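RETRY 2/3 - previous attempt timed out on the joint model. Re-submitting the same 573-residue input unchanged.
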Amino acid sequence: MTGTSSRSLKVILVFGYAFLYIPLLIIVLFSFNKAQLMTTWTEFSLKWYRALFSDTVMLRAAWTSLRIAAISATIAIVLGTLAAVTIVRFQRFRGKAIFTGLVTAPLVMPDIVTGLSLLLLFVAIQQLTGWPQSRGVATVIIAHTTLAIAYVTAVVQVRLTEFDRSLEEAALDLGASPLKVFFVITLPLIAPAVAVGWLFAFALSLDDVVIASFVAGPGATTLPMVIFSSLRLGMSPTINALTTILILFLSLGVLAAAIVIHKTRR
Amino acid sequence: MKHPFKKGRRKTPYDILSRRGHALIAVIPYAWLLVFFLIPCLFLLRISLSDAVLARPPYTNILSIFPEGLLQIRLNIGSYLTLFQDELYQRGVITSLSIAGLSTLCCLLIGYPMAYTIARSSEKVRLILQLLVILPFWTSFLIRVYAWIALLSPTGVINGLLLRFNLIAEPLALMQTPFAVCLGIVYAYLPFMVLPLCVSIARIDTELLDAAHDLGCRPLKTFLTITLPLSLSGMIAGSVLVFIPAIGEYVIPELLGGSETLTIGRIVWNEFFVNMSWPVASALSILLVFFVVLPISFWQRWREMKA
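RETRY 2/3 succeeded.
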């Protein structure tokens, strides 16, 4: 590439990153703005943070969301790891293609279809058995777990295919039982992938609004559901404050990860 | 010639495990997905074929067992006929397809130059640049949509600035337009386009480009005859990855769009929650799945053809 065209490519790159970051930075800036509207900057104020931390509806929803995310991520790593082992390590068995398809299908299914179909299932089960009496936290956990299995399986699958199998074989030759080999050799080796899968599943659950709106009962309003209903009414400076806190946590997380990677590489 | 050490397959822990052990491992995730994914899909199909009634739940049973033990199945394709007859749904399909198509194209046009520059950087810089593309994606999805509400709405940042400098007399209608919806989708799913493109462009052998240069080929021609065709797999992968979430999108058109951007997702929501018309909502969902499966099967066919 010639000098001018590589320079113009760099300009496009800068514009691309500006497009990705400026909207979020504006939100962060205006979270410290005293005025209600975002048309003008009036003066520095922390009043929207105070408003956020005294908003009991939002705080309760945040607690519900965190619980749902943690539980569904934990179930998903168990099921996802088992699914990955089945796909990578088992020889062909009848129905393996269907199994692999079933694991990945929730990835591409539109949220609205997943939500609707799960709700239809819950309604039918309720008619037959009486459970669940009212949809709530449990139904959201089930829905989010189903979605997250695909992500966990994908991550763990990669790790299982690339790792050195001779360690497993050696343990086996020395007389360890397959179960012991899995817990002593395999699991520690795939642990980083499982951890990444857990984080994926956790983030996925915290991000979902459509599926939760279908399957959540009156007692299980998640944080995204609260945010969504307030966004329907327009802008809200408390959401600015929430965004800033979220970005702060994210940046700290990235910084911590960078430090850990940097230290382990040395 | 046989490899001296490869006398048959080497044993893995899973070969010793009995068939029962195998089944025990596989059956847990299998059962979960069967009950909470496949069966719900069948329910969707079943309810799309039933009649809507005023009851709880608001649909008829398509299976009924008579006292004599006879099984009766009553299928009703009325919901599907409604989809093809009522103009509302046809317009919804066209709106969804055009918004998803246009957003995918915009992602490609913005994402390609970005991916090209990223892929041509040194390895260390490339990793950081790729991370910077993903990073906004880790903030909440709703918040990324909200950022555009804050920018585009009549009392938002852009209108505020323009009014302040007297460039406009009254706020521009930026929100509740198809433009806003496309912008929101491009913003939300741009990483899905950039990352596969980066991978496929970085994989191109730079010796090919050097050879073209040495033989006197102009940069533009080199790009059009070498780089572009060789990155086609990344372009297709990225386009499918953007199109799939875009076609089924509900949140973005609901928050950034107005009455003109009634996409399939929004109609499903309204049919279900507002009109309580479960069979129509189910039939429409099945149509939506069709629009998702189509590009994926096209992608699969294309990859098989190349292999």
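The two ends of chain B are 27 Å apart (CA to CA). Closing ticket.
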